[in-house]
Design goal:
alpha/beta; N-(1-d-carboxylethyl)-l-norvaline Dehydrogenase, domain 2; 2 domains; six-stranded parallel β-sheet; 15 helices; 9 strands; about 10% strand; disordered N terminus
């Protein structure tokens, strides 16, 4: 699950970056020739800011862009040598342009709407690390081909904490040559042991959506189980404890319902609107390849309901509140 594209610095992330043990000696640090690659970075939200900061710490020359001029200027001021882009032409020297924005529409707007693509040299690679619709990714690649620009899709998992430490899981789709060319930056942004080469272009984005729909479905069934258990007088905390020690154990039971829902904290850092978007992408992807996926379709309807009732800015862990009879989960 990826945190929302919010234009402010994640609390404490600079301290984490500066105190991270052995960063200067980290084996994933690029060599001198790799550090001379100029990287464009679009999207300085909760995820993008620490990712760009890690690239700066690793020695890559950076050009940064954010729809918030204040955020862009603050990043450039805090990272000497980083250039805040004033026009698409500032990206002309970039060898790789990373996009970390809310969705494929925002990626397209940055590259073709604002005009970054027209300023890039043929042979530049765009590395879309957003959670985009795989069909949008393929359409964008076709449009960028006329500029001589190729695309690699590399969405991430791990949230803000792993974005800060440079240990994100990355799902990478694209041609073997392009995937090899972006390894210098991927080794800084993610844990090589958690990098998965998924195949052709768009498979990374497909995998990200399918991963998240499994998590979203798990959230639905846990909410229903807790509601049913309450009817028998079972304590929600006891139920979660049993799930976590039994076959019902999952990321959602351990890290969402336990510390966030049962406590009423609702602070996963991943917005409901983004989860609903990923579920919708997964449902769309299943339809696009002719797969009958009634469970995914039902999960999509449940998350659409949560989105309509709670709004996109709510934390995704609040979704159970929109599903009838679930308000008694929090003690």
């Amino acid at each position: 699950m990826v945190s929302a594209h919010v234009h402010h610095q994640y609390p404490g992330q600079e301290a984490l970056l500066s105190t991270r043990p052995g960063r200067a000696d980290n084996q994933r640090m690029s060599d001198d020739s790799e550090r001379r690659l100029t990287v464009g970075f679009v999207g300085l939200g909760n995820m993008g800011w620490p990712m760009a900061a890690n690239l700066h710490a690793a020695g890559f020359p950076l050009i940064v862009r954010d729809v918030s001029a204040e955020t862009q200027d603050r990043f450039a001021a805090g990272h000497p040598g980083a250039l805040g882009a004033r026009s698409p032409a500032d990206f002309a020297v970039a060898a790789i342009v990373i996009t970390m924005v809310p969705d494929g529409a925002a990626v397209r707007d940055a590259l073709l709407g604002w005009g970054i693509a027209a300023a890039l040299r043929p042979g530049t690679i765009t590395l879309d690390m957003s959670s985009s619709d795989p069909t949008d990714t393929l359409r964008l690649a076709a449009e960028l081909e006329s500029f001589g620009i190729s695309v690699v899709d590399a969405p991430v998992s791990g949230g803000v904490p792993r974005a800060v430490t440079g240990e994100l899981s990355v799902m990478v789709g694209g041609s073997p040559a392009d995937v090899a060319a972006v390894q210098p930056v991927l080794r800084v942004l993610g844990d090589p042991a958690r990098q998965f080469l998924t195949g052709r272009l768009s498979t990374g984005h497909a995998m990200k959506a399918l991963n998240n729909v499994v998590g979203a479905a798990t959230s639905c069934v846990i909410a229903e189980a807790l509601a049913a258990g309450a009817g028998f007088g079972l304590d929600p905390a006891t139920m979660i404890g049993i799930l976590n020690a039994s076959t019902g154990r999952s990321f959602v039971s351990e890290l969402v319902y336990g510390p966030e829902v049962l406590t009423g904290r609702y602070g996963t850092g991943f917005k409901l609107g983004l989860m609903a978007k990923d579920v919708r992408i997964a449902a769309s992807a299943a339809l696009a390849v002719g797969v009958d996926a009634p469970v995914i379709a039902l999960v999509n309807e449940l998350w659409k309901k949560a989105l309509a009732e709670l709004g996109p800015a709510a934390d995704q862990s609040r979704a159970h509140q929109a599903w009838a009879g679930r308000d008694d989960i929090v003690p």
